[in-house]
């Protein structure tokens, strides 16, 4: 008899427990404190307490049946001790499928659910611990990169100042070379004019000798004519032989002597040299100005609140995905190179495009190469926290629109919180 009484008490307490406690979270427990009556949580109805979890739906909000499938909109709380608690629709209670890892949803079914919460929790805790270690290490590296960024920023500023100085010096040099070139041109001009005068004088002399020799005025000088007038030009000791008297080019005056004028040659050489020197200085000045403008553009980019992203500038990262090699050069461009070697632009640096809370979580690269019968190629780069800076994945979810997962310590945020795995209850 005593044994029967004990068994009845145990059975009763299990029944009461299953009716009252099952499917309720700790925070809701206060609504189910055993009293004579139960007030539906939405306050719409008062029912006798025995009707809680009696497998009949009394409350419109389903709150009287948290542990059974009786109410259509009801929800069942899996406490999942050792893992993450969660709600399931109460229609899944005792439906023969294990939904809660603690098997609490199948307390009265043929399904033999095992409690797997402990294993799941262990696995998740290991994952979370791994993530926390990554985060710690990432934050440590980020700090280093911020410090390096400060130096790098100073270095870039100094580089800009140096380049500006070089440009100023080159400008002075340029003016000097322009002046020298102008002077060399002027001298050349002057020498040429002087040479021309000399040449004309020489021509006149040659013409008069020609006229003296050309006694029959036929415009030609013969050997006889030369020998006849030899007294004018002969060596006083002897008369001119026939060979000596042969005058080549009997038609007109000898060719211009200007080409052989050493003054003109020197002036021309000087002018050419000055022109070459000026061109060299002009080229150097242009190059340095391009470098200045390039550097100025780089320095106007937003590199994050602590300039933590500065180090990414002038770096490139690659990843091969199937037949394509993708290259991300942060703050510059994204490209795609196919196995056959053609390189396509997937977008040029556009802007930060993260969330309002963290605008530095995404980068947009826009206006890449137009897609055949499609849009212009664009790429969205998502920055995720990691201990290394590397491309993790590239996908093309829609034609010519690419998404890139880019890991780097500078994307690590100290506020990152993991969803807790509870071990209470
Ligand atoms: C190339 C690549 C692809 C893209 C097609 C569109 O093959 O750039 O990523 O989808 O062109 O024609």
From TrEMBL:
One of its GO terms (molecular function) is calcium ion binding. GO terms for biological process: liver development; N-glycan processing. Residues 201-236 form the EF-hand domain. The keyword Disulfide bond applies. Pfam families: PRKCSH-like (PF12999), PRKCSH_1 (PF13015). Signal peptide: none annotated. CDD domains: LDLa. The keyword Coiled coil applies. This is Glucosidase 2 subunit beta. It comes from Myripristis murdjan (pinecone soldierfish). The gene is LOC115377074.
């Amino acid at each position: 008899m005593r044994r029967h009484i004990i068994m009845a008490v145990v059975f009763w307490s299990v029944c009461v427990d299953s009716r009252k406690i099952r499917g309720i979270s700790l925070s809701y427990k206060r609504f189910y404190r055993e009293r004579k009556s139960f007030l539906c949580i939405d306050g719409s109805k008062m029912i006798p307490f025995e009707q809680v979890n009696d497998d009949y739906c009394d409350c419109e909000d389903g709150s009287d049946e948290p542990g059974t499938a009786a109410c259509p909109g009801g929800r069942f709380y899996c406490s999942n001790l050792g893992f993450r608690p969660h709600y399931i629709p109460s229609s899944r209670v005792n439906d023969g499928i294990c939904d809660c890892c603690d098997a609490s949803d199948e307390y009265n079914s043929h399904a033999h659910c095992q409690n797997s919460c402990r294993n799941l929790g262990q696995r998740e805790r290991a994952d979370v611990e791994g993530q926390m270690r990554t985060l710690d290490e990432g934050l440590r590296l980020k700090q280093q990169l911020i410090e390096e960024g400060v130096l790098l920023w100073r270095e870039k500023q100094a580089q800009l100042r140096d380049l500006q100085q070089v440009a100023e010096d080159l400008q002075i040099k340029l003016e000097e070379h322009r002046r020298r070139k102008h002077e060399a041109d002027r001298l050349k001009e002057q020498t040429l004019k002087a040479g021309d005068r000399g040449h004309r004088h020489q021509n006149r002399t040659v013409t008069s000798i020609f006229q003296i020799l050309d006694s029959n005025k036929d415009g030609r000088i013969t050997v006889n004519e030369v020998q006849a007038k030899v007294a004018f030009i002969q060596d006083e000791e002897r008369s001119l032989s026939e060979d000596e008297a042969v005058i080549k080019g009997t038609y007109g005056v000898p060719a211009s002597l200007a080409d052989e004028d050493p003054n003109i040659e020197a002036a021309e050489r000087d002018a050419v040299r000055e022109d070459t020197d000026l061109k060299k200085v002009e080229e150097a000045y242009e190059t340095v100005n391009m470098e200045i403008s390039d550097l100025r553009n780089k320095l106007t980019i937003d590199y994050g609140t602590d300039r933590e992203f500065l180090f990414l500038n002038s770096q490139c990262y690659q990843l091969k995905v199937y037949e394509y090699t993708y290259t991300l050069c942060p703050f510059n461009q994204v490209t795609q190179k196919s196995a056959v070697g053609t390189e396509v632009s997937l977008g040029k640096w556009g802007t930060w495009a993260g969330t309002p809370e963290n605008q530095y979580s995404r980068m947009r690269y826009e206006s890449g190469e137009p897609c055949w019968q499609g849009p212009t190629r664009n790429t969205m780069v998502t920055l995720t926290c990691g201990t290394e800076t590397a491309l993790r994945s590239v996908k093309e979810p829609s034609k010519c629109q690419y998404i890139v997962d880019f890991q780097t310590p500078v994307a690590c945020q100290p506020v990152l919180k993991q969803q807790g795995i509870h071990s209470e209850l």
